[in-house]
Every structure is written in C-alpha cells, then in structure tokens.
Amino acid sequence: MKQKLKTLGYAGISIFLCLSLIRFPDQALEAAIRGLNMWWEVVFPSLLPFFITAELLLAFGVVKFLGVLFEPIMRPLFNIPGAGSFGWIMGMASGYPTGAKIAARLREEKQVTQIEAERLVSFTNNSSPLFIFGAISAGFFYNIKLGLLLAICHYSANTIVGVIMRFHGKKQEQHLTKKKRYPFSLRRAFQEMHRNRLKNTRPFGEILGDAVLNSIQTLVMVGGFIILFSVLIKLLFLMDITPIIASFIEPVLPIFEMPKELGLPFISGLFEITVGSNLISQVTTDSLLQKAILISFILGFNGLSIQAQVASILAKTDIRFYPYFLARLLHGTIAVILTILLYKPLYLDRIVINSNEIPAATMQDSSIWMNTYFFLQSIGPSITILSLAAASFIIIYKIKKR
C-alpha cells in the first residue's frame, strides 16, 4: 500500500508540473533562463576549480596525508577520521554541494564508514564566502558589514552542529572494532600519501581527464536542479500555492516582531536561497536584524534546491539523507540564536551611526569577494562553455580509445 501511495504521489507531482508548464510557458521559460544564467555565470566557474582540485588531491593521496595530520583534531572534536578535515575546509571555501561530493568520494574509497560519512555531510555543506559577501551582502543589501555578521554566525553554527552530530550513530558503532589511534607524525602521513598514490596506476593525463569529467558531470547535475527549482518556485507562485503556504507563516511573524511581508520571501528562501535572500532584501523593515535572522536560517537550512542536489549525490552511496536534513534544521536554529546575540557587537558597534539603527542599503564597500563575484559574472559564461567543450572532447576521446 505504501509503495502504491508513493507511485500516486510521484505521478501526481509529475502531472502537476507538466500541466503547469503548459499553463504558463512564457513565465516558465523566463524562470529557466534566470536559473541558467545564475548557474553558468557564477555557480559553474566558481565550483569547477574546487571540484577538480578535490579529485586530484584524492587521486594523489594528499587527503590521506591530511587525514593522518588532522586525526588528533577531527576525532575528538567531530568523531570522524582526519580525512574529514579536507571536506570541512573545502566545504567552507567553495560552498555547497562540495561537502557532500567529498564525503561521497571518501565513502567510495572507504576512508570513512557510513556513520562517519553521515556526520561529515551534516556539517560540511556551508555557504561559500563568495555567496555570503558577494551575492547577499554586496549584491542584495549593498552592505559588506552585514556579510561579516552572517559569515561568523553561519560558520560558527556549522561547527557547533558538527560537534553535536559527533554523537550520531554511536549505538550503531558499538559493535564495530575501534581503530587504533596514532599520534601526530609527518613521516607516517607521507608514507600513507605515497602508498595511496602507488595504488593509483592510472597515468597523469587520465587522472586529470577523469577529474575534469567527473567534476563537470556533477556540476551539470547541479545546474539542472538550479533550473528546475527556479521554474518550480515561479510556477508555485503563479498557481497561488506559495502565497497559501506563506499565509500560515504570516500570522506567526508578528509574534517575533517581524512584518508579515517577510512571509512570502521566507517561504521562497526555504525552496531556493538566492531567490529568497533577494526578496527578503527588498522588504522594508524597522530593523536590519529582522532580515538577518531569516537569512541566517535559510543559509543554514540550505534550501530544498541544495538539499535535492545533496540527496542526488548521496544516492550513489549508502549515506542516509535524514541526518543531513536534521542537521540543517539544527544549523538554521543555532545560526538564528547567534545572529541575535552577535548583531550588536559585530554589526552595530562596528559602524558610526547618528541614530539607533542604520538603513539596510548603505554605500557599497570594496571587497575581494564582491569583486570576485562580479568578475565571475563577466567571464563565467566563457569558462562554462570552454569547460563543457573540454568535457565533450574527453568523452569523444575515451569512446574512440575503446
């Protein structure tokens, strides 16, 4: 019976999406183009170098090297092997879904157990500094100082989530044989790296080609989800479904001293972070704190679009999705608490004001993240097209070689 209900549910969603596309073809096309632009201008060129680098570092054993060095830190703090430090660092630097991608690769190589991979995924899918400072702070709010508050709350909350999730699956691990813990040793770290590299018998050209191809395949999947959710959000709005959902949220917002107008942007943010953050920035509020609270939550929640990307990556492994989802709720909640506590010391006390509050839109500051974001928008399409052409060439070459 349960499987029959699933079949009906999947079929109903598919039919609804199909009929909605037929009913609103022009608006759906516009939303698809908006999602495509976001993907090929910023997402693809910003994530591609990190994905390729991650594949190369895994292939050459550098992750094994880092794993030995960081074992004394990662094991007591997060209850995961030292190799997880690579996913944590790369996740913070490049943003989602890099953490999920690396966790899945580490699991495929059996450098982490299933439970350890689930812990790792729960706190390595962060928003990147480029998105927080470039897109949200500079692009939407024209206020780099807000980015500092959001970034500190976001990454601090994420670390706290990692510490809490160290207890995940402890009962399931009781029957497993505990691995011997080694002290810090550069020599052993190098030996592990060298041993891992010797196991990989592929020539350098093939390793590089596979790294490029695997990275581009993942990013094409990410692009598909971005376009799909961009269209879905637009269709839900046109069918008055999003406003209906928002109507249940709007009566609750005044309890937290927030205007009802933030209800629809917040619901949109739960689906897709970029769209929701942009809509939140356009709402007039008494205090910037009200907007910062909602954005902190949706950044921690990741948005259903990002969660769908992560679920797709994890589906190829035995890593379960629900620990990641629970961690997202926890991350958003902790980030909100930190935003409330740190708003005055990290934001208000850092600026010179003549009143008790400043307007959300202040003069745009120069920032390396802002400059990088706008630079990617200008050259991003060229990088994306060249990369897709390179992937096509590699595929054709492999087919001919066979």
TrEMBL record:
Positions of the Nucleoside transporter/FeoB GTPase Gate domain: 42-136, 220-315
Keyword Transmembrane: yes
Keyword presence, Membrane: yes
Signal peptide: none
Keyword annotations from UniProtKB, A to Z: Membrane, Transmembrane, Transmembrane helix
Spans through the membrane: 47-70, 120-142, 207-229, 292-314, 321-343, 373-397
Name this protein carries in UniProt: Sporulation integral membrane protein YlbJ
Organism name: Oceanobacillus sojae
Name of the gene encoding the protein in the UniProt record: ylbJ
